[in-house]
Amino acid sequence: MMIIWNNLLKPTLRPFARKLRGLKATLSLQSQLAFRKIRTRHTDLLILDTLFPHPLSPFRYQEFISYLDRFPSALVLTTGEHLPTPALKETRQIGEIINEFEMEQPEYSGRTIIISHNIEYYEARLAYIVFLYNVSVFLPALELKQIPFVFTLYPGGGFRLNVEESDKMLKRVISSPCFRKVIVTQKNTYDYLISKNFCKSEQIEFIYGVVTPLNLLKNRLPKKYFGYEKNTLDICFVAHKYMEAGIDKGYDVFIETAKKLVATHCNIHFHIVGDFTDADLPIQGLDGRITFYGPRKNKWLENFYIDKDIILSPNIPFKVMDGSFDGFPTASCTEAGLRKVAVFCTDELHLNVKFTSGEDLVIIPHDSDKIVQLLEFYYSNPAKLKKLAETGSEKFRTVYNYENQILPRIRIIEAELQGEANEIFSTPNLL
């Protein structure tokens, strides 16, 4: 009788089940939170974020999935609150981003969960976060749950030099009883923490650079060089736009440089990737010599860089906001350098500790006239430009490989997890 009843009931319920699945897919963040069954989940590692798994943040995309691979019980809790930022202009809900991610990589299904800043229903031995703002908004919840944490203090994300608001946030985070370690990626960040007595040196781990997508390190696509396979010199500018005219990224200097070069050369072309258009700055004189591609994903850039010779990055600090700065080199320069594109970039804060200018890349001044002089030299010496690109690519490959970026971070997390385990097992049983 029960079997007959079930067979009669199932067809009746199927339309409602389909409607329910469709409703769940379109729910807002708040509704999805309410929809999910409330139960406590236990894990070794909680990764807390505001953007993952959006593909236009490739460094955290690679970093977080590397932790999911290494720690089988690890979960990513994400709010999605930074999706609508000017750099991304994302209109989709975070649930849609997660669905797309899980369709492309089903092995991670169910391990990225939408939350608010509340982590009430999660227990963990350790939490990991990137950026100062992110750790600050999750700090009350971490302290309430007494979950220790490690965080990476990247440039940006609320961290600014000699700015009172940023310093207060940093002091609050590092003075937390749950704070264990901070990973820094630039020398000036390390010096800043020490000189301002935010923490002790043994609480800081210095890992120069940024996590780079592993596919960039593995794939070696064919390359076309100026003076060899082609007769045009192709110079690109790749960046997000965070302020008017992209002054912080040096877009104004790039356009000035382009205008000066086209005045004397008919075979130099310019390519711009990012949310820049011909409305940002006047481009008279560059007609037919400049192309705007808009924001693009990492996968698209693989083929884009095949016939590009130079990436020009005349970025400058303290422009978007007081105390704000980029790391050296930028992530865009790193990706281009790995693709055998010669990197020409500024280093106004003297952050370079790994590269040799003139061998691995060229450090440029924030001055279009002087940049033109440097580019003219390499325009006249295609063999030197080719060697610069090839030598630079190998250097980038070494600095940003798995062993020098991801593995040290994994070891820090493992050491903290082991430390927590030792603390638990060494606590006397008072019952």
How would you describe this structure to a colleague?
- With 431 residues, the protein is α/β, with parallel strands linked by helices.
- It is 40% helix and 15% strand.
- The chain has 14 helices and 13 strands.
- It is globular, with a radius of gyration of 24 Å.
- Mean pLDDT is 89; it is low at 1-27, 33-37 and 423-431.
Total count of domains: 2
Largest sheet: 7 strands, parallel
Oligomer state equals single chain
Number of helices: 14
Number of strands: 13
Nearest-integer average pLDDT: 89
Measured by DSSP, the beta-strand proportion falls in 15-25%
Low confidence ranges: 1-27, 33-37, 423-431
Shape summary: globular
Short descriptors:
disordered N terminus, 431 residues, alpha/beta, disordered C terminus, Rossmann fold
Summarize the structure.
The protein is α/β, with parallel strands linked by helices and 431 residues long.
SSE topology:
Blueprint: H1 2-25, H2 29-35, E1 41-49, H3 58-70, E2 75-78, H4 94-104, E3 112-114, E4 122-130, H5 132-145, E5 149-153, H6 164-174, E6 179-184, H7 187-195, E7 204-206, H8 214-218, E8 233-238, H9 251-262, E9 268-273, E10 290-294, H10 298-304, E11 310-313, H11 331-338, E12 342-345, E13 362-363, H12 368-379, H13 382-399, H14 406-426
Parallel strand pairs: 1-2, 1-4, 2-3, 4-5, 5-6, 6-7, 8-9, 8-11, 9-10, 11-12, 12-13
Helix pairs in contact: 5-6, 9-12
